[in-house]
Amino acid sequence: MTRTAPEIATTPRPTEPEADVHRLEVTHVYGDAYAVDVRGHQLLVDQPVEPGGKDTAPTPVELFAASLATCVAFYAGRYLQRHGLHSTGLGVRTEFTMATDRPARVASIRLVLVPPPALSPQRHAAMLAVASHCTIHNTLHETPEIGIELEQ
Questions:
Q1: Alpha-carbon span 44 to 49, nearest angstrom
Q2: pTM for this one?
Q3: Are residues 49 and 66 in the same domain?
């Protein structure tokens, strides 16, 4: 009697999910101004007049702070939406300072989440907790890999 090895059922190995790659393109417009194309939306960045720009748009650093502020606002707004609450009056005030030493960088950012006037004080802490975990804030705490290379 000849014995054969039992067939081993194999299940396909789970594959790593493909990274969801998001792309944008930056092109020079004039002087210190650059256009940013994001999914068909255009943004412009420039520098103030003092360092040589024409002050036609926010600076890249201002957009950086704005991205954090709008991310916080978005998360707070989604919290309100999930709970069937109105977002009228919701806002975020933001200020930042630049480091005085090198390398050039933002030294501090302060955000003040302004709750809608109709929001009960009992909901303030929960909304703040949700907003504090927005994607940009998380990214600043868990630094992404950044690669800068020159096209050949």
A1: 15
A2: 0.85
A3: no
Report residue 92 as tokens: 């975020």
Strand partners, 36: 26, 43
Q: Omega of the bond prior to 103 within 30 degrees of 0, cis?
A: yes
Produce one character per residue of 69-99: b if its CB has 16 or more CB atoms within 10 Å, e if not: bbbbbbbbbebbeeeebebeebebebebeee
- Say which CATH number the domain at 65 has: 3.30.300.20
Taking only the tens place, the pLDDT of each residue in 26-75 is 999 999 999 999 999 999 999 999 999 999 999 999 999 999 999 999 99
Judge contact between 106 and 95, C-beta under 8 A: no
> Do 63 and 113 share a domain, yes or no?
yes
